[in-house]
Every structure is written in structure tokens, then in C-alpha cells.
Amino acid sequence: MNTTTQRSIIRALPWTVGLVLLVGAPFVLGLTGIRGLMQVFVLAVAVMSLNLLTGFNGQPSIGHSAFIGLGAYATALAVQNYGWSYWSALPIAVLIAGVVGAVAGVPALRIRGMNLALVTMALALVFPQVPVRLTEWTGGTAGLTVDERLRAPAALGVADVAWQYWVLLGIAALAFLLIRNVVHSSMGRAMIAIRDQHVAAHTVGINVRAVKVTVFAGSAAIAGVAGWMFTVTNQFVSPGDFTVLVSINLLLGMAVGGSGTLVGPLMGALFLYYVPEVLPKLGVNPQLTPAVYGVLLILLAFFLPGGLSGGLRSLVRRLSGITAKKGVTTPQPTLDTT
Amino acid sequence: MNLLDVRDLTLRFGGVRALDGVSFGVAEGSLVALVGPNGAGKSSVFNCVSGLYRPNDGVVEFAGENILTLPSHALASRGIGRTFQNLALFPRMTVLENVLVGGHTSHRSNVLSCAVRWPGERRRERAARARALDLLSELRLAHLADMPASGLPFGTLKRIEIARAVMSEPRMLLLDEPAAGLTHGEVDELGGTIQSLRDAHGLTVVLVEHHMGLVMSISDKVIVLNLGKVIAEGLPAEVSNDPAVVAAYLGTAA
């Protein structure tokens, strides 16, 4: 067996084991554990979508709560008010979020950095007002309960919750796979090129505007998928679920996990779900959670600038020594690329 | 037949005339050097030709087409590749990935085919990788293919940038001060590298360069700029004896 196949087996092993464990989880975990993991899947897809735009393409967004909210509300309204099935609501949720994302991506062509962040924040601030305006239709601030749930096919003979869990797991895994493929393709290289060297990206022939708008729309569409997953999980939507704080939490999750990495959003999602769960059990007043986040973020910036995934990677390198080549493990001075 | 024709190029920054009616031609297959003291406008010419600056006046014709109306990203597919004076590599990519980005124009694919990895997309990716690896070995960089670009020596980074530019299969390669920051040995090597790349890939090369030894040894034609104007043009030997050039570099006797 040559070393490349050996290495790819070693690399695939933790993924396979993890996926098998997750698929088997409904047979082992109780309802609370399953519901918790479903929330993690929703968060994972949400952070993945943000990471695609911000981490890989360098376009900051504080507006992702709005895209997720669009997907979630579109699903809830279609299922509850119009009697659609969840599955037929999925493309609608994706389409609506994607189209709004494409429109939001157009001003992003002109503005960058902090200003873009502010424009997207406006989106996040406006979104929760919309359902309130349309109270008769959406239930307003009280929210909208969806009576119907995503049902398991009768032929399978499994509980609906288990089926929902597997559907969400499958979608999250699929989103991960598609994003991985894009990031490792010519499109992904173009995205990173735009993030790191705007001018050089133009000169090598990358249509910077087209790529940016495409990524914005694609990222928003994936956020719409996360919204659909949200409604499947909670069967309830309210304006309070999609405030600007959600966007900020997603950014936090991305930074904690490691922005611009593939594994980062998964770790970020685990962080975002389990840290607020664990803190009260440790005797920390839940109201102090944001403060704990803040302290953790500062510590992380100091000790793990690459986020959890960056830390994990250097740990694996240090422990394995198989893949570690001399010069790769040592911290590299950053290239001056002004 | 000229591949590149620059006519009456004028570029103003506020009240400063960076370029003041610059005209010159570059014959297909030739190696032309653009020289001149600091601030003469050499890089401005490059930035106009590669679409990064919009001149206030004048024409830039490439292969008979006026390229000033084209968006800057369209120039690569027309056959113009360039490197930058201060390097513009992608630090978080590997050396191979940096070069692969250069193949962007010949590797047009949409997001969806990238996301699901159509067989056609895989084939294109494999072909691009093979070509990038060939180029890297041509520039004696193959052993660095999987290294991150950041942290490599300056001279190596410059060669990577050249590889990236050649990866786009340009007809004309613009090199902005390729010898700056290189050691003596590296500069000697660079001259040979540029010439062999030109021959192997059928390139027309225009370079901005301060290193006169390099300019004199490899150029077919030298164009001298001073204060935004062309003050001399000709064979290397002719230009170096031109009184206007001597005056521009050394100043006239007081």
C-alpha cells in the first residue's frame, strides 16, 4: 500500500467513524440528546453558509440571521398557511433566501469591509420587523406555530423525530460536501484569491463582481436551507429567533471554529449549542453567557488564532509526525502583500 | 506587425501628469524593456495596459483591439499576463494553488459543476494541475508545490508569480521589476529564465526594470521614459549612449 492511499485512509477514518456514530445516535441517545444534535446541525449549516461568504470570500455579513429567517418563515408559512409539505417548501425557502442574497450582494460590489458589515447589519435589523408588520399572516411577535411535522415515510416504520434527525444530518453532510468541493475547485481558488489579493484576482482574469455576487447568493441560499432546518426542528418561528444577535453569534461560532476552514463551522456549531447548555450546570448565571463568550474570544485570539480547527490541526501534526515535514509545522512569517 | 500599440497615453492624478502622451509599439515575439528613473511612469504604463488604471486619454491596442474599454478581468483571456513589483501572491494558498489560480481563464466552470464535481470538471482540474506542475518544474519549483506560499524566499516568490502569469497562457507577459530584490546569482538566472519562457511559450515580453545589466543583456528594444514621456527608443546599445538618456539618469552639467 503506498503512502498516499494510506494517508487518505487515515484522513477519512475520523469522518467515517463520526458519521457512523451520528447515524446511530437515535438508537442510543434520548429525545433531548437527539433534539440537541438537530439544533447543532441547524447551526452548523448556518455557520457553513456564513463561512463560505466571510471566511472564504472575505465579504463580512451581519445579515445572515435575515437569510435564515427568510428560509424559516417561508417554510413555516408555506406549510402552516398554505398546506404545503415540508419537502415542497424547501426549494422555495432556498430560492427566496438566494434571491434576496443576490440582491444584497450587489451593493457589496461597491463597498467592502466594515461598511459592508454595516449594510448587512441593516438587513438583520429590518428583518424581524417584517413579520410584525404582516401580523395577520405571520402571527407577529407571538410567532407562528406549525402544526404539521415532517413525517417519516410509513414504509420505514421509524419515529418521526428520528427521521427528522436523519434528514437534517443528511442535509448538513451534503452541505458540507458541496462546500468542500467548491472550496477545492477553481471557483474556491477564485474566492480565496479575491479575499487575499483583490488586484491580482482581476489580473489573472477572475470576474471579481460575478464571483462575489454568486457567492453572496449561494451563501444566502444555504442560509435559507438552515432556515428550513430550523422550522423542521422547532415547528415554530418568531421574529425573536432571527435578530441581529443571531448573526453575531454565527460570526462568533465561525471565529471560534476557525474561519476560512472547512471543519471550523462544525466546531463553531458545537460551541454555540453546548457552551450555553453547559455553563448553567457549572453554576454560571446564564445572563453572564455573553461575557463568557467575550472572554473566550479574547483568549482564543491570543492562543488559537486559527480557531479550534487550526489548533486541532497543529496538535495532530505535532502528535502524528507522519505528515509533518520540516518547515511546514513551524509558524510561517506572513507574506507582505501590499 | 505590432502585438501592442500604445498611442498618446495620458494619465493624470489630480494635477500631476503621470503619463504625458506616451506612444510606443511592441512587436510580436520581441522582448522589450521599459526603463527610466523612479517616477518616470513605467508602472503607470503597465497599469494602463493591464486595465488597472483608466488613462485620461490615448489608445492601447492589443492584437488590433482597443482594450481600454474592456473590464480589467477580461484582459487575461485576451492574452495579457503580468506580475507585480511588490508581489501579489495569495499567501494562504500553496505554491501549486497559486499557479492554478493563473489558469482561471482557461478553466471556466460554474459553481454547480464545481459543487457536484462533474466528470468534465474533474478532467479540467486534472489537466490544470498537470499543466501547473509542468510549469513549476520548468521554473525549478516543483519540489515546493505543496508548500504554503508565505514564508518562502523572495526570489522564489518572484518565480512563482511568473509561473502564475504564464499559466494563463498569455501572448504578452508584463514583468514589473522582476529583478528587484534578487541576489546577483538570481538575476543572472532570471535573464535565462525569461528568454527560455519566451521561446517555450511563444511569448512577447515587456519588462519594467532598473537592473541595467539584465536589460542590456536580454532586450531586443529599450524604451526610456522620463517624467511621463518617452525620451528614447531603440536597441540597447543605441539607447545607453543617447545624450537625453544620460541626462535623465545623471542630470545635466550645472
Q: What is this structure's SSE topology?
A:
The complex is a heterodimer of chains A (338) and B (254).
Chain A: H1 3-28, H2 31-56, H3 64-82, H4 86-105, H5 113-126, H6 129-133, H7 135-138, E1 144-145, H8 160-183, H9 186-196, H10 198-203, H11 208-234, E2 236-237, H12 244-257, H13 264-281, H14 289-303, H15 307-320
Antiparallel strand pairs in A: 1-2
Chain B: E1 2-13, E2 16-27, E3 31-35, H1 42-49, E4 57-62, E5 65-66, H2 74-78, E6 80-82, H3 95-102, H4 111-116, H5 119-138, H6 154-167, E7 172-176, H7 184-201, E8 204-208, H8 212-218, E9 221-226, E10 229-234, H9 236-240, H10 243-250
Parallel strand pairs in B: 3-8, 3-9, 6-7, 7-8
Antiparallel strand pairs in B: 1-2, 1-4, 4-5, 9-10
Helix pairs in contact in B: 3-6, 5-6
Give a structural overview:
The complex is a heterodimer of chains A (338) and B (254). Chain A is mainly α and 338 residues long. The N and C termini of chain A lie far apart (45 Å). The longest helix of chain A is centred in the middle third of the chain and has 27 residues. Chain A has a two-stranded antiparallel sheet. Chain A is 72% helix and 1% strand. Chain A has one domain: Orthogonal Bundle (ABC transporter involved in vitamin B12 uptake, BtuC). Chain A is built from 15 helices and 2 strands. The C terminus of chain A is likely disordered. In chain A, helix 2 runs parallel beside helix 8, helix 4 packs antiparallel against helix 11 and helix 12 packs across helix 13. Helix content of chain B is 39%, strand content 24%. The N and C termini of chain B lie far apart (43 Å). With 254 residues, chain B is an alpha/beta fold. In chain B, a hairpin with a 2-residue loop joins strand 1 and strand 2. In chain B, the strands form 2 sheets. In chain B, strands 6-7-8-3-9-10 form a 6-stranded mixed sheet, with helices on both faces. The longest helix of chain B is centred in the middle third of the chain and has 20 residues. The model of chain B has no long low-confidence stretch (mean pLDDT 90). Chain B has a single domain, classed as Rossmann fold (3-Layer(aba) Sandwich), CATH 3.40.50. At the A-B interface, helix 8, helix 9, helix 10 and helix 11 of A face helix 2, helix 3, helix 4, helix 5 and helix 6 of B.
